[in-house]
Input
Amino acid sequence: MYPDYLAETLKAVERTRPARLELAMSGQPVYPPMNADERKDVLSKYHPDFAAGAKRPVRVGPNRGEDITTEVADMLEAHSMIEPKLMDIHLREPDYETDLLIIGGGGAGCWASITAMRNGVKSLIATKLRMGDANTMMSEGGMQAAVSKTDSPTRHYLDAIGGGHFENIPELVRVLTEDAPDVVRDLENLGVIWDKMDDGAMQVLHGGGTSRKRMVSCRDLIGATIMRTLMDEVKNHPDMISVREFEPAVELILDENGHCAGAVLYSLDTEQFLTVKAKSTIITTGGFGRLHIRGFATTNHYGATGDGLVIGYRAGAQLKFMDSVQYHPTGAVFPEQIAGFLITEKIRGAGGQPLNKFGELFVFPREPRDIESAAIIRECSADRNNGVDTFVGRTGVWLDSPLIDMIHGDGYTRHQFPGMCRQFDRFGIDIVKQPMLVYPSLHYQNGGIGINERCETNIPGLYVAGEASGGVHGRNRLMGNSVLDYNVFGRRAGQYASEYAKSAKIVGKLNVDHVAAHAAELQRENITTDLVSPLILPSYTPDDVKIQQMARLGNIPARHSMLRSRLASS
Amino acid sequence: MESDKQASQEGGKRQRVQANMVKVFIMGKPHVVPEHATIMRAIEHAGHQIIRGAGCREGFCGACATIYRLPGDFKLYTGLACTTLVKEGMSLTMIPSVPMEKTVYDLEKLKPNVNTILEVYPVTFRCVACGTCTKACPQKLPVMDYIQAAMRGDIAAVADMSFDCVACGLCALRCPAELIQHEVGILCKRLTGRYLRKESKELDDRLAEVRSRKFDAEYAELMEMDTSVLSKLYYGRDIEP
Output
């Protein structure tokens, strides 16, 4: 139920709805899409990436001197969790040995283990929480794949590269878009239930920045559907794939040639450090939403703390596009309990419209995400002040979902958006009849560790796939291309890393000398910090309680509660 | 700080109001927490760092199965900690893990019929149709109905009714006949996607085109293109209504 103080602005939305519906049914754009100059203007003035202090030059490591998102730079310049000298015995006698180590048990990680298995190679998945506790599980709206007659993979390429402001790495975009139809079929053969038309054709919808209807879907639960299918398949092969849960990686291990030879894991249950020796290693750790960049609420899962970036970077991996952050245009604002939660872009794909407090459209509903987000921030900013404020201290714009049934027919919303309906039904809001209040929410790590189309990094034996990698999306990803990304590159990483593992030789002693070198570099640069990374888990303990926890002797707070800044704002 | 204030405004934050507080019992111990908190937030407000029992935090992953009672009420309630609000006097505990055995099977060797259910999850047929699972489901799914459908071999109906299952396992924990309902749901969904789908001819055609390398020349041209030319092509492209 919306509180009384919102009644007037809700009425405004209803008042303007008939005219907006008529325009939507006419097939004309409901609002003029922005041209190149307008896009540039709204981004530079309102996108959080361009605010003062949003990024700064990093002072250590392979990208030294380059601008990186401030919170990420802080993590890269933090201390390791391990004392290298104390690791010797575990490096001589590793706790686990495997052909292929996969760090992260989300969509990309599960795919990698499956394709490695198809290639006859055994793997070990080490993951921070449970398998499937990943952003993959949470994606709602759909996956882009050029499967309809009017579409083509090269058209998908053009949309993706334009959405990324022409900075994406062309070879990566090509395999992303060209592998997509095969991913659809591969998933279907594993048992994913796609939304289909009566004749069996894939149901497709628009997403932000698409020029053809290209979004394939599983109602509004594509992530959970794919993730549960992949997890189930992984569990069907215990002889080929072993899984270690609650054991995140905290450093990589190299051999004497500087090739990647495994990782150091940290058991969250017993607080032991465990070593894995592996002929090749894939980082599939996902993104960094739980760093709460610039104090934004996030749509991300609990463990999304950018660990793969940190451990890869310390071992010498190059980062790409790590100065840009994706804010999803529509995170929930009301009620407070679900603030920041993802409201799928599929709502706008199906005809939902963002409106200011007067019930007016102020932006084309399907601009690329960075543009749409910047436009919403502009509408709510002091410059326009057209946001709808809630009494608990948030602001947002309306997302007019009742239009969807009016466009597609009664019952469409309830069938196509069961997840969204349930989320709001819990709080007495029927999104078939009333709009949702939304504001941009921290959503995606556009950049990451640089890879090529074989998922190789600049470190031999180290592969990266999914959100942890950088280059596929440039500085802005389109809706539905991350679900596609972890499927395409997860499959590829498993293929190429297992091929490498077949002939790779680990030379000499395993070592973590790069960790000691990182500590020396911090000292040389006069960097003083009490942060320890990877972060592993964010802390939502109130500050006063936290201060009491910090009294523990030694400089490492109990239970990895290390992110002290901006705690209260998430 | 000025920069913090600016960041907070851009993040969509305005002035906060003081929250009313309620008393809850977390694993038997009383704590005072904000009344608008979810169970998960309340546990964190009390100073715990959750390790087992939090995943997506938005109601998709099923990591945070929780049981609780309310004062003066005999009922044992079930819910997801991430989306259930605290209430005055609530006494709660999270379930860190649900013990169960997933059957290992080869999807390629199964058929979408009742024999598969009998073979893979024979315990399903112990169902006494008491409806406890349905009452326990935090997603409000008709769990008992889909188990009944499974016993009839109506695989597609199981898939449809269990589509939104988060696999929290509360149904299985409450079941007096010791079924593992959510695993039956996943099995039937996979069988449906694999065997009961309508084939897409469009998809077959597109796959054939990709395999015959039909798009090589177009890709080569696009990948070589100067940004200014590419930009012109992009902004000038037609958009399907």
